User: Fold this.
Amino acid sequence: MLGSAIGLAIEREGANVLRLVRRPANEPDELRWDPAAGQIDRERLEGTSAAVHLSGANVASRRWTATYKREMSSSRVDSTRVLSETLATLKNPPKVLVAASAVGFYGDRGDEILDEDSAAGKGYFPELCTLWEAATRPAEEVGIRVVHLRFGMVLGRDGGALARLAPIFRLGLGGQLGDGRQWSSWISKADAVSAALFALKNENLSGPVNIVAPNPVTNAEFTRALGRAVHRPALIPAPAFALRLALGEMADEALLASTRAVPKRLMQEGFAYARPALADAFATALGNR
Assistant:
């Protein structure tokens, strides 16, 4: 959802985009790479001005078995390390690398307000995010400016959590998760794309940047707002014990964890949000405006 949108946004500004693909490259703007084998045509990367890395297996697509946790880790940590090492060996490396991370770095922190200076939390996802961000070190060591995009929940019509939730809520089957008091950090797809480009261009930004709206909400507020957006009541809660029974570790780490992250760095640098209010983000994502 985000990779294609960011690539198109860069092209609209007049730059050429070279897309790294894991299948055979079929188009002139594609370059095949194999992170597991470390294979890539370095010559075609020479002289690029910037790199964007968003790779990562979906954290909410299936139960977190030991096998799938290894896949989530490898798709993030190993691919980031391979790309960073590759860029570091170039004669003319890019000036900047923006790489995906997540507000899951902060873990389950209750009502605590979390900005980029907050420490990592405890648990599987904070540990994964810490390793994910550390994998960019080879690029940093050769002077490439690295920005870690700590994404919150991205609200777009063509993927992510909202694409799964909206059909359920349209049937009138939606409701809060657990007690609904856990905080959710979210951002509209349009603002997420704009923030990524902002990080690419703004030389004052390096290190972690929270890619979230300035108004985090509780899960109860989120589900009520989604119900209003689809004109259905959100009255059917999902109890915490049922979520844990169905989803195991993912329930506590991804659905019931409370992460109240705010975009301190973006606000300091004057980033302008198009959809800072949740109702507006829902209306745009669901095609209501």
About this structure: The first strand starts at residue 19 and ends at 21. The longest helix spans residues 66-88. The mean pLDDT is 92.
